[in-house]
Write a structure and sequence with these properties.
Elements lengths: L2 H35 L1 H7 L2 E8 L2 E10 H21 L4 H10 L9 H25 L12 H21 L2 H18 L6 H13 L1 H7 L5 H4 L6 H20 L8 H19 L1 H19 L7 H29 L12
Antiparallel strand pairs: 1-2
C-alpha cells in the first residue's frame, strides 16, 4: 500500500470517527432533552422503584426505593463526564485523530474517543453477523419483553453503569487491586519503603483504572506491554465474567433467547478488555453505545419523528463504519511492528 493510499485511508477513517462522535454528542443531548422537556420525563418524575445494586457478579436488593428520574439523571451525568475523560486521556482526542490520519498502525495505546467509534461499530457488526448466523440454525436471540419507554429508557440508562460495576469494575478491578497489593507486599519484603496511604490509594485506583494502578506498582499493563500486560488471573476472570454476563442476559427474565448468550458473552469480553486497557470510563461508554445511544432518538417525539429517522441513519452509519473498522483493524494487525526482543542479562 503506497503512502498516499495510507493517508487516504487515514483521512477517511478520521472523518468517519468525527461524524460518529457528533452523533454520540447529539444522542446525549437528546437524552437530556427527553428527561427534562417531554412527557416521558414528567412520567419518570412520578415513578419510583426498588433499588438494585450489582457487584461481584451478584445482584443485591437494596432496602430503599429511589425516584426513577434521579436514577436516569445520574447516569447521564456519568456519561458526560466519561466523554470528557475520553477526550482528554492518552494524549487527547486530537492526537488520536493524528494517529488515524497518518494511516499507520498505532504503536501506542491511542486516545479512546478517537478509536471508540471503530471498536464499537466493528463489535456491532460482529454481533449482528453472529445473530444472523444463529438464526439460520434456529437459535433465537429473542428481544426485550417490553416496549414501554417508561421502562426501557431508565433500564437502558442504568445498565451501562450498573452492569459494568457488577461484571467488570468490581471483579476485574479487584483482581488488579490484589495484583497491586501482592506486588507492594513483595516490594516491602525486599526492604523498600512504601507509605501506607500511597499503597491504599493505588489499590483503590485499580477499580477506576486497573492499567494505571498496575503501572504505579511496577507491573506491566496493556498500555506498556500489549496483551502481554494481562496477567493469567486477569485472563481467567475476563473469560469468567464474559460467560456469566452472557448467562445473566439469557436467564435474567428480560425476554432474551438462548442466542443472546454468545453475542453478549463476546460483548462482555470486549468490554473487559477495554476496561483493562483504558479504565472504567471507556467500558461504560462502550456499553452506552449499545444500550441508550440509538434508543434515545426513537423516544424523542418533537419535529415529527425526524430524530427517529436520524437514529436509523446513525445505526446504518455505525454498521458501515463497523465494516470499515474491521478492514482497517485487519490492515493494522497485518502491518504491526514486532515487539522488540529483550535478551536477559547474564
Amino acid at each position: 500500500m503506497s503512502y498516499d493510499l495510507k493517508a487516504a485511508v487515514g483521512w477517511i477513517t478520521a472523518l468517519a470517527v468525527v461524524i460518529s462522535i457528533f452523533s454520540y454528542a447529539l444522542s446525549l443531548i437528546v437524552s437530556v432533552v427527553v428527561v427534562t422537556t417531554t412527557q416521558l420525563g414528567s412520567q419518570l418524575l412520578t415513578m419510583s422503584g426498588q433499588l438494585y445494586i450489582e457487584a461481584f457478579l451478584l445482584i443485591f436488593l437494596a432496602p430503599v426505593e429511589a425516584n426513577v428520574l434521579i436514577l436516569v439523571v445520574i447516569p447521564l451525568i456519568v456519561f458526560v463526564l466519561s466523554f470528557v475523560k475520553a477526550g482528554t486521556a492518552n494524549g487527547g482526542f486530537r492526537s488520536g485523530l493524528r494517529i488515524l490520519t497518518s494511516g499507520r498502525t498505532p504503536q501506542i495505546l491511542p486516545n479512546w474517543l478517537a478509536v471508540m467509534p471503530l471498536v464499537a461499530s466493528s463489535l456491532l457488526v460482529i454481533v449482528l453477523l453472529l445473530s444472523l448466523l444463529q438464526a439460520l440454525f434456529s437459535v433465537s436471540t429473542g428481544s426485550l419483553g417490553t416496549t414501554d419507554p417508561a421502562v426501557l429508557f431508565p433500564s437502558l440508562a442504568l445498565a451501562p453503569i450498573a452492569e459494568e460495576v457488577g461484571f467488570r469494575i468490581s471483579v476485574l478491578g479487584l483482581v488488579a487491586g490484589v495484583l497491586v497489593a501482592v506486588k507492594f507486599g513483595d516490594t516491602i519484603a525486599h526492604g523498600a519503603k512504601v507509605t501506607n496511604l500511597s499503597e491504599l490509594g493505588i489499590f483503590f485506583s485499580a477499580f477506576i483504572s486497573p492499567g494505571y494502578a498496575k503501572e504505579r506498582a511496577g507491573l506491566p499493563s496493556i498500555r506498556t506491554s500489549g496483551l502481554k500486560g494481562i496477567s493469567i488471573s486477569e485472563w481467567i476472570f475476563l473469560f469468567l465474567t464474559a460467560i456469566v454476563f452472557g448467562a445473566y442476559h439469557v436467564l435474567g427474565g428480560a425476554g432474551w433467547g438462548p442466542g443472546k448468550f454468545l453475542t453478549t458473552a463476546l460483548t462482555g469480553f470486549a468490554l473487559g478488555l477495554v476496561y483493562l486497557a483504558y479504565g472504567a470510563y471507556a467500558d461504560i461508554l462502550l456499553h452506552w453505545f449499545f444500550d441508550l445511544n440509538f434508543y434515545a432518538f426513537s423516544v424523542y417525539p418533537s419535529f415529527n419523528g425526524v430524530f427517529a429517522i436520524f437514529g436509523d441513519l446513525a445505526t446504518l452509519g455505525a454498521v458501515a463504519l463497523g465494516v470499515w473498522g474491521i478492514i482497517v483493524g485487519i490492515y493494522w494487525y497485518a502491518n504491526r511492528k514486532p515487539s522488540p526482543i529483550i535478551y536477559p542479562t547474564i
